[in-house]
Amino acid sequence: MIRLGYACISMATPNNPNKKTTIAQLNKLDKAGQLKKLRQVLQTNFFNLMDLLEYNAKHQIFLYRLPSEFVPFATHEITKEWDWAKEFAWDFQKAGDYIRKTGMRLTSHPGHYSILNTPKPNVLEATIKDFDYHAKVFDLMGLDHNSVLVTHVGGLYDDKEASLERFSAHFALLPEYVKARLVVENDDTSFTMVDVLGLCEKLGIPMVLDVHHHHCVNNGENWVDYIPRVIKTWGERTPKMHFSSPKSESEFRSHADEIVLDDFERFATALANYDIDVMLECKKKDEALLNLRKKWADASVRS
C-alpha cells in the first residue's frame, strides 16, 4: 500500500502552522513584548496545526511534513530564555494524541543551512542545534521513530569521499535521540542514490529515495534495482520516499505544480509489493495530491 503526503502548506486553507515574526519586529519590543509575541505566534501555529491535522484526517491524508518554523526562532539567541517546551507541553501532548489516534505520520526536513558534513565548526554547531530542535518537537509530541528528520549529505567541498567521511564523523557527535530520527535523502546535484545508500548502510540509518533527484544525478543506475536495499535500511519502520515531476525540460530540477500520472503509475508499480509512505513534492501541495489520487483511481477503474 502507498500512502501519499504533502509538505508544510495546505492549499485549501490560509491557516497553516507556519506563522512567523521577524527579528526586526522583535527588536522593536522590550523583553516582555518579545515573549508575548513569540507566544502568540506559537499558539497560532498550534491552533492551525490542529485544524490542518483534522483536515488531513478528513481527506485521508496520513503523511504530513511539519514546517521547520513551527516554533518561532527555536534555535536563535532571542529565545534562549524562553522555555517553550515546558510552557506548551500540554499543546504538544494534545497534538501528539491526535496524531497517534488518527494513525498519521509527521516528518520534517531541517533547512538548507543545516549541513552536517560542513568543515566549518560554527555551521556544524548550528546544524546540531537545528536537528536537536526538530527531534525535540517530535519527542514532545510522543511520536514514534517513523517521525523522521530528513537531511541531505551536504556539500561536495571538492572531495566527495572526504565529504562522506566527514558526514559520518559528525553524525557520531549527535545526541542519540537525534540519531534515532535522522534519515538521509539523495540530492539533485551532488550525492547520488548509490552514494547515499552506501552511507546509510554504513551508519545503520534509513535512506529516503527521491526518484526525481535520482533522474537529475546518477551514473546510469536503474533505481528500481536498488529498491530492496533501500527498503532494508528502514528495518521495522515504514519506508518513506519522495516523488515529484519536473517542471519542464529546461527546468528539470524544479518541481512541477502537479504530478504526471504516467510517471507516478510506473513508480507505484515498482513498489506494489511494499508498504510505503510517499511525500509528493509539488507546488500545489494537497491539491495536487487529491488530484493525483482521483486520476490514479480513475485509471485503475478503466484498466
β-sheet strand percentage: 5-15%
Give the SSE string: EHHEHHEHEHHEHEHHEHEH
CATH architecture descriptor = Alpha-Beta Barrel
Query: Looking at CATH, which topology would you report?
Result: TIM Barrel
Uncertain regions: pLDDT < 50 for 5+ in a row?
none
Question: How many beta-strand elements?
Answer: 8
| Rg from alpha-carbon coordinates | 20 Å
Total DSSP helices: 12
Structural class: alpha/beta
Mean pLDDT, as a whole number?
94
Largest sheet: 8 strands, parallel
The dominant shape is globular
Organism: Brevibacillus fluminis
GO molecular function, one term: endonuclease activity
Protein name: UV DNA damage repair endonuclease UvsE
Pfam families: UvdE (PF03851)
How would you describe this structure to a colleague?
It is a single chain. The protein is of the alpha/beta class and 303 residues long. The protein has one domain: TIM Barrel. The chain has helices spanning 23-27, 31-58, 84-87, 89-102, 121-141, 160-171, 176-179, 193-203, 211-216, 227-232, 261-270, 285-302; strands spanning 2-7, 63-65, 105-107, 149-152, 182-185, 207-210, 240-243, 276-280. Strands 3-2-1-8-7-6-5-4 form an 8-stranded parallel β-sheet. Helix 2 runs parallel beside helix 4 (89-102) and helix 4 crosses helix 5. The chain is globular, with a radius of gyration of 20 Å. GO terms for molecular function: endonuclease activity; hydrolase activity. It comes from Brevibacillus fluminis. This is UV DNA damage repair endonuclease UvsE. One of its GO terms (biological process) is response to UV.
